Amino acid sequence: MYTNNKLTKAVRLAIAFGAASAATSAFNVVAQDTTEAQKVERISVTGSRIMRADLVSNSPIHTVDAEELNARADITIDTYLNTLPQVNPAGGTTSNNPGNSGQSNVNLRGLGSNRNLVLVDGRRVMVSQANMTVDLNTIPAAMIEGIEVITGGAGAAYGADAVSGAVNLKLKRNFEGFDFRATHSNHDKNRDARENGFSAVLGSNFEGGKGNAIIAFDYSERQELIKAQRPFAAMATSTTTFFPEGLYFSPGNSPTQAAVDAVFAGYGVPAGSVPANANLIGFNSDGSLYSRGVPRNENVNVENWRYPVDLSVNQKFFPDFYSYNFDEVNLLVLPLERKTFSSKFDYDLSDSLRVFASVSWTNYESQTALAPTPFPTVNSQSLTGTNPQTVKTGLITPGTTIAGNLVVPVTNPFISNDFRTILNSRTGDNPGLVGSGADEPFQIRSRSLWGGYVVQSRIIPLFSI
Q1: How far apart are CA 84 and CA 411, in angstroms?
Q2: Cβ–Cβ contacts within 10 Å for residue 46, how many?
Q3: Does the N-terminal peptide bond of residue 376 adopt cis geometry, omega within 30 degrees of 0?
């Protein structure tokens, strides 16, 4: 191995000289800083490039300015807030089932919309429900200048109401001029899911800038959207045994397998394909019967189904088994119409004293619509003693409860011949029902498709000073 001794010595000498020079320089700088520090008595910051509180705050704060809010053209505030990582978008003004009746709520950190505090210019606002939630729809959106979202430490300042944080909506201040905005949006392909909105704000300073007055009007409209209009939401992700066609239940008094096989043989169904004691029999509109099948059982499928296989049938499971698709008629987006008028006044009496006043009026209407209701959804319980209703029905044994099903007497004139053959084969006894064998009433569960949808309207008028 060859080594250049002269080059090696030169490098070592240079390194040693550099280290010595650095040490000397560092000593001089420290000595100079110490001397200068002894002379400084006061440090005054006259300007800063830090424009946002979230850059220097001890607590996690997210600030949103009016420019960012207007760029999205959302007609409700929660639509934007639900995009933030610290907000749990479990429900909003578009939520139908489970819904909040069109309210615009914010749920910080997933702890519940009643576990965070909503402020306007740092002051608490009136709650909208008994659970202490605040409906953001009641706050004039056209007046909002920015939003601050605090997700840590707010409880120390505001108490247990802000255990998950606080949302502070800052209204316009010292606004001068006229601002008019109009927005329109809809689905580019389907031309639905329409949203329209416009707002007008007028403000002016007076008394040399000591006072400021602002008035604003805001109108928003959102078109409803049904789940059937979107393939990703058209099919329910869960099953149900409440069918519009009705489903026969036979606890304690099942028909014989021979009778079931004989009836379904007339439909061309092999014997044993429909178990007699599995609550599988439903009703076709022509008086015949069908079997709904058994989930995850390839040997027991849907038999003799005579209705169209359309969106009312949950096609994720059919023909392995039948389940009603209740999501077809559920709302994906709730309709909304909102009108808001607001006014704000500020006046500086002195450098340390300011008076202010605000007036707002809000009126909005929203609707929810659920699928036809399962009937009954509560227990059917007999009455005891000498109550006239007990004597009149005579179907349920006094003191017992029949849960979740309707009780029908065998004298019902709408019983088809095929179904009566199955009922007449019964030889058991359900102690909760009056009678036994073929004379005992039978149970069915159904969905009230004949009654239409369950529509709930929420009209909120609000006036605050």
Answers
A1: 61
A2: 4
A3: yes
The dihedral built from the CA positions of residue 388, 394, 396 and 400, taken in this order, carries a sign that is positive
- Whole-model pTM over 0.85: no
The CATH fold assigned to 61-223+336-366 is: Ferric Hydroxamate Uptake Protein; Chain A, domain 1 (2.170.130)
State which H helix or E strand residue 16 sits in.
helix 5-39
Q: Are 400 and 409 in contact (CB under 8 A)?
A: no
Cα→Cα distances 462→140, 142, 157, 342, Å: 11, 16, 29, 11
- Work out the number of other CB atoms within 10 angstroms of the CB of residue 311: 15
Three-state SS at 445: strand
Percentage of residues in the chain having pLDDT higher than 70: 77
Confidence of residue 115 (pLDDT cuts 50, 70, 90): confident
CB 105 within 8 A of CB 91: yes
Peptide bond into 319 cis (omega under 30): yes
Return the H-helix or E-strand segment holding 464. strand 454-464
Separation of alpha carbons 144 and 72, rounded Å: 14
- In single-letter form, the type of residue at position 16 comes to A
What's the pLDDT band for 159 if we cut at 50, 70, 90? Answer: confident
- Axis crossing angle, helix 417-424 with helix 257-265, rounded to the nearest 10: 160
> What was the pLDDT predicted at 99?
61
Who's near 139: CB < 8 A, 6+ residues apart? 77, 120, 125, 169, 360, 362
Residue 121's region, left for phi above 0, alpha for psi from -120 to 50, else beta, is left
Report the C-alpha gap between 371 and 327 in whole angstroms: 7
For residue 431, the tally of other CB atoms under 10 A from its CB is: 10
Give the per-residue SS3 of 252-313.
Answer: CCCCCHHHHHHHHHCCCCCCCCCCCCCCCEEECCCCCEEECCCCCCCCCCCECCCCCCCCCE
Over 50: is that where the pLDDT of 112 sits? yes
* Residue reference for tokens 């029905």: 393
CA distance 12 to 112: 68
Instruction: Tell me the domain boundaries of the chain.
Output: 61-223+336-366, 236-306+371-464
- pLDDT at site 288: 96
CA proximity to 190, closest of 228, 235, 221, 237: 228
Lowest-pLDDT range, 21-25, 131-135, 177-181, 194-198?
A: 21-25
| The two three-digit tokens of residue 41, written as one number | 């008595």
